[in-house]
Specification:
There is one protein chain. The protein is α/β, with parallel strands linked by helices. It has 3 domains: 112 residues, Fumarate Reductase Iron-sulfur Protein, Chain B, domain 2; 256 residues, NagB/RpiA/CoA transferase-like (Rossmann fold, 3-Layer(aba) Sandwich); 50 residues, no CATH class. 52% of the residues lie in helices and 10% in strands. It has a 6-stranded parallel beta sheet, sandwiched between helices. Strands 8-5-6-9 form a 4-stranded mixed beta sheet. Helix 3 packs across helix 12 and helix 16 crosses helix 19. The longest helix has 21 residues.
Length: 455
C-alpha cells in the first residue's frame, strides 16, 4: 500500500508532551485510574472470573461470525414489539436518521444519556447546527459539555478534571456559589437538569447490548438520568453499533457479572434497564415511540478482517485504567472518541492508518490491558500487529526505521553489540546535551554489562 500524501490530523506526540506538562491533569488521572484499578481488583475476588472471561469471549466470537443474522433477528423482534429499527451504514447516515426522526416528530428539546457511539458520529454538533437543543444529562458528560470539551474516558467523561476545577466551572457557567464538595456539585447539576427531563421532546441514548431473541435494548447505568431519558420523553432514539448483539436474554446474566466488576468494581450496576418496544398501554412511563439505529460505520469490514476480535470489546474501560500511557496523559491526547489500548486499535481500524497511525505510539506493549479484559480481547497482539502494519505501509518515521534496522544488525553480531554498548556509555553525556528531555527519562548505561558480570 502506498503512503498517501494527505497529512495526518493526529499529533499524538505533541499532545502527549503538553499533557505531561499539566501537573493538575497528571494528578487527577493518577488518582482516578488507581481508584478504578483497586476497585476492580476487589470486585473480582472470590468469583470464577477467568471462567466467566472465557465464556464471554467464546460467545462474542460466535456473535462476530453472524453479525448480520443477529441484527436481522433483533430487528424482526423489536419491530414486532412496536419499535422502528433503522440501519446506518456510516456516521453521516446515522446523524441524518436521528435528525430526520426528531424533525418528523416536531422535537426541539432533547436530553441525552451517555453514549460513546453518538460521540463517535459527532451527533451533538450536527443537531446543534440544525437547531435542536441537546442537553447531556450524565453528570460527567454534562460537565464536559458546558466546558466545551470531549470525554476523556469512556466511563467517566470528566475523569481528567479535579473537583476544584468542576466547582469553578459550575460557578462560571451556572452562576452558582463556588463549592468543590461533590454532594454540592451533584445537587447543583440535579437542580439544573431536572426541568430538562420534564420538558424534553425526545431522549437519545446508546446501548451496552441489544438482545436478538427478544428485540430488547440493555443499559447499564449508575445515575438515574438513564431511566429519566428513556422513560419520560414521548420519543426515544437509541443509537448503537452492530457488534453489541447478544443472541439470547439468557446470555445477559454473564455480562451482568463481568461488566460492572471490570468497569467500576461493583457487583451490579445501580440501574439495569431492559427496554423492549414502545410504552405498554396502561403503564405511566416509557416512550410512546421507540426508534433504534444500528450503526455499522466500518464494523462489518473489521469483522471480516484479521483484527476482528477488537469488536468483542464491551467498553468497560478496564484496559485504560491499567495502561501506563493513558494513566499519565489522559484521553484528550488521543484526539479520538475511544482512547486507551482498545481506543488505539478501534480508532486505527475505523479511521485508517493514514489518520491514526501516530496513536500506535501510545503503548508500551506491557500487556496489562490483555490481562484485565473481561472478554479476552488480545489487545497486546492486535497492537503489535498494527505496529507491524504501520511499518509495512510506510508510516513509520525514517529515524525509527533506521534505528530499528541498526539495532537488528547489531543484535545479530556479538562484536557490534558490545561495541554499541561501549559507545552508548561513552557518548551518553553528548546525547543528554542534544536531547535532554528524551534521554533523561532513560536509564544510564551500566559500567559493567551482564556478560562481564557473568564472566
Amino acid at each position: 500500500m502506498k503512503k498517501s500524501t494527505q497529512p495526518c490530523r493526529i499529533n499524538f506526540r505533541q499532545n502527549s508532551r503538553e499533557a505531561l506538562q499539566n501537573n493538575s491533569l497528571r494528578h487527577a488521572m493518577r488518582y482516578a485510574t488507581d481508584t478504578f484499578r483497586d476497585k476492580r481488583l476487589n470486585g473480582i475476588q472470590g468469583v470464577p472470573f477467568e471462567e466467566w472471561r472465557q465464556r464471554a469471549s467464546d460467545l462474542k466470537i460466535s456473535v462476530l461470525e453472524n453479525l448480520s443474522g443477529y441484527g436481522d433477528q433483533f430487528a424482526a423482534n423489536a419491530t414486532r414489539r412496536g419499535a422502528i429499527v433503522h440501519r446506518a451504514v456510516d456516521a453521516a447516515h446515522a446523524r441524518e436518521l436521528v435528525g430526520d426522526i426528531l424533525h418528523d416528530h416536531g422535537a426541539i428539546d432533547v436530553v441525552k444519556a451517555k453514549s460513546m457511539v453518538t460521540e463517535e458520529i459527532h451527533l451533538n454538533k450536527y443537531l446543534d447546527d440544525r437547531g435542536f437543543r441537546v442537553i447531556e444529562t450524565d453528570l460527567g458528560e454534562y460537565i464536559v459539555q458546558i466546558a466545551g470539551e470531549t470525554p476523556s474516558h469512556i466511563l467517566a467523561p470528566a475523569l481528567h478534571k479535579t473537583r476544584h476545577q468542576i466547582g469553578k466551572l459550575f460557578c462560571d457557567k451556572l452562576g452558582c456559589d463556588f463549592s468543590d464538595e461533590p454532594h454540592v456539585l451533584t445537587n447543583t447539576a440535579r437542580k439544573v437538569l431536572r426541568p430538562e427531563f420534564i420538558k424534553a421532546d425526545a431522549g437519545i441514548c446508546g446501548a451496552n447490548f441489544f438482545v436478538a431473541d427478544t428485540g430488547s435494548i440493555v443499559l447499564f447505568t449508575n445515575e438515574g438520568n438513564g431511566r429519566m431519558v428513556t422513560t419520560l420523553p414521548p420519543l426515544l432514539i437509541v443509537v448503537t453499533s452492530i457488534e453489541k448483539a447478544l443472541p439470547s436474554i439468557k446470555d445477559l446474566p454473564l455480562f451482568m457479572r463481568l461488566l460492572p466488576r471490570s468497569a467500576t468494581g461493583q457487583v451490579l450496576s445501580s440501574y439495569l434497564s431492559i427496554i423492549s418496544g414502545d410504552q405498554i398501554p396502561g403503564l405511566p412511563s416509557g416512550s410512546r415511540r421507540l426508534h433504534v439505529i444500528l450503526l455499522d460505520n466500518g464494523r462489518s469490514e473489521i469483522a471480516d478482517g484479521p483484527h476482528r476480535e477488537i469488536l468483542k470489546c464491551i467498553r468497560c474501560g478496564a484496559c485504560m485504567n491499567v495502561c501506563p500511557v493513558y494513566g499519565t496523559i489522559g484521553g484528550h491526547a488521543y484526539e479520538s472518541t475511544y482512547p486507551g489500548p482498545m481506543g488505539v486499535i478501534l480508532s486505527t481500524l475505523l479511521n485508517g492508518l493514514e489518520r491514526s497511525h501516530p496513536l500506535l505510539d501510545a503503548t508500551t506493549l506491557c500487556g496489562a490491558c490483555s490481562e484485565v479484559c473481561p472478554v479476552k480481547v488480545p489487545l497486546l497482539k492486535l497492537l503489535y500487529e498494527l505496529r507491524e502494519r504501520r511499518v509495512e505501509d510506510g508510516y513509520a518515521k525514517s529515524m525509527e526505521r533506521f534505528g530499528m534496522l541498526g539495532f537488528g544488525l547489531a543484535a545479530n553480531s556479538p562484536f557490534f553489540f558490545e561495541t554499541g554498548q561501549a559507545l552508548a556509555k561513552a557518548l551518553w553525556s553528548l546525547a543528554r546535551l542534544l536531547s535532554p528531555v528524551t534521554v533523561n527519562r532513560l536509564p544510564v548505561p551500566t559500567d559493567r554489562t551482564f556478560k562481564r558480570r557473568m564472566s
